[in-house]
Design brief:
515 residues, alpha+beta, D-Amino Acid Oxidase, Chain A, domain 2, seven-stranded mixed sheet, five-stranded parallel sheet, flavoprotein, Squalene_epoxidase
Length: 515
């Protein structure tokens, strides 16, 4: 097989053939939200794009089910708004929060925008398949099913990152599984496995949450594991089950938040957060059902309790480890990381797809002026521009998600209990107090300075609450603890994301040589 090869696959038939008739402009590893969106975006510009996806069947995940309004705006900009149509997606207009029987309602600031701009909630797999179908409609885009094993250098050897060579392509395998009629399942069969290599001037790795290539391209990136989400589905119309059928719902429970949101016209997703400090209950031993029934059900709104009990008794639990990982941009000739392989935040606020789509939109616009990617210096310069211009929306959403999770978790610290109550009361004030934070959360306000202002406004609001009616020594001490706790939460997150990246304009970082 020649250096530049075209591989085609009919995902329904599972048959692969390779011919030597095309030189690829880009090889994309992974056809999830980031990979499929990028393939479409580059393809409509006339680029020849090969996407290699490990599994082309419909994904079955319990995260990536809520697209914030800011993410929908980017979806429209990419020409992909139709991907939320025909999948029974539900419009979401805000959040309703619950704490100790009290309620705070916040709506997205959508005034002045077209009627279609809102959040969208759906089955993740249906959305991803729509994105893949849209990408495959574009001439010049080919998606194949295969497993990428290695990054390759110009000599066709495994790229190590230590030899000064650029990434020139990838090696991937096809097959390796056969259907066992007796077992009624796929079984591994090495004799059917084929190995191929493809080459392109640019390789984009979007292989997701559990990326196998991240350590090669970003060795300093280390994911943290703050918690797990355990999900069940409540059956019924969202308006019948939820206090607000077109809102996401957050219960500020003990020890951590519980989420409810519609994913179709007949289903509501419940996600129970299990923090790392709590031993994961066993599903097989019945511990998880007991945990939810005894610990979680009494804390959720009364309207939801019978439906959650029924879901626990009749449904199946799904779990997903939650990861956070600050972006660590790295100049790698011929390759770049995108999506969850590059950057993750706690999924509490549903900001992951918004960050990914913002990144794809920025990446595409930065590289658009290039006629091709064979000029390595010109391409590297444009990639630096991408890193510098992605930061405002990405770092704002990341910091907010991780900071809110830290505030909303109950860890026995009385000062953090005060901070959590202050945050809830602050949002209950409505008006600009709620409008600012919800604009940040929705991805409609990408200003990190506004985030810091609102975060410390919450802390000062909490201190003010303690000063009424009298600032006793005990209350003064608690006030100091709130401010100290707020600093302990926000400053490490900002440091991890990069202070200069977060607050310095792109032109300043260009002069400083920071990406």
């Amino acid at each position: 097989m020649g250096m530049f090869a075209r591989a085609r696959v009919d995902a329904r038939a599972g048959e692969t053939s390779v011919t030597d008739d095309v030189a690829w402009d880009v090889v994309i590893v992974g056809a999830g939200v980031a990979g499929a969106s990028l393939a479409h975006g580059l393809g409509v510009e006339g680029r020849r794009v090969l996407v290699i996806e490990r599994d082309m069947s419909t994904p079955d995940r319990i995260v990536g089910e809520l697209l914030q309004p800011g993410g929908y705006v980017k979806l429209k900009e990419l020409g992909l708004a139709s991907c939320v149509e025909g999948i029974d997606a539900q419009k979401v207009y805000g959040y309703t929060m619950f704490k100790n029987g009290e309620v705070a309602t916040m709506t997205y600031p959508l005034e002045g925008r077209t009627d279609d701009v809102a959040g969208r909630s759906f089955h993740n797999g249906r959305f991803v398949q729509k994105l893949r179908e849209k990408a495959m409609e574009v001439e010049g885009v080919t998606i194949i099913q295969g497993t990428v094993k290695k990054l390759l250098n110009d000599r066709g050897e495994e790229w190590s990152g230590e030899d000064g060579q650029r990434v020139a392509g990838v090696s991937y395998t096809v097959g390796g599984e056969t259907w066992d009629k007796e077992k009624n399942a796929l079984v591994r069969d090495a004799s059917t496995m084929q190995t191929h290599a493809v080459y392109a001037p640019l390789t984009v790795v979007c292989d997701g949450h559990f990326s196998s290539l991240r350590t090669k391209l970003s060795p300093k990136s280390t994911p943290n594991h703050p918690s797990h989400f355990v999900g069940v589905i409540l059956k019924g119309a969202p308006n019948d089950l939820l206090p607000n059928g077109h809102h996401g719902h957050v219960v500020l429970g003990d020890p951590s938040p519980v989420l409810f949101y519609p994913i179709s016209s007949t289903e509501v997703r419940c996600l129970v957060d299990i923090p790392a400090s709590v031993k994961m209950p066993s599903v097989a031993k019945g511990e998880m059902a007991k945990y939810v029934l005894e610990k979680i059900v009494p804390q959720v709104p009364e309207k939801l309790r019978p439906h959650l009990v029924k879901a626990v008794e009749e449904g199946r639990f799904r779990s997903m480890p939650n990861k956070t990982m600050a972006a660590k941009p790295s100049r790698t000739p011929g390759a770049v990381l995108l999506g969850d392989a590059f950057n993750m935040r706690h999924p509490l606020t549903g900001g992951g797809m918004t960050v990914a789509l913002n990144d794809i939109s920025t990446f595409k616009s930065m590289l658009s002026p290039l006629p091709n990617f064979s000029d390595s210096k010109a391409t590297a310069a444009k990639l630096d521009e991408f890193y510098r211009h992605r930061t405002r929306p990405a770092l704002t959403i990341n910091t907010l998600a991780n900071a809110l999770y830290a505030v909303f978790c109950s860890d026995g610290d009385s000062s953090m209990d005060e901070m959590r109550q202050a945050c809830f009361e602050y949002l209950r004030l409505g008006g600009t107090y709620a409008r600012g934070p919800i604009a940040l959360l929705s991805g409609l306000d990408p200003n990190p300075l506004n985030l810091v202002i609102h975060f410390f406004s919450v802390a000062l609001f909490g201190i003010g609450r303690l000063m009424v009616p009298l600032p006793t020594p005990e209350r003064l001490l608690k006030s100091g603890n709130i401010l100290t706790g707020a600093c302990k939460i926000i400053f490490p997150i900002v440091k991890g994301e990069g202070f200069a990246r977060m607050f310095f304009p792109a032109w300043v970082r260009t002069k400083m040589g920071i990406i």
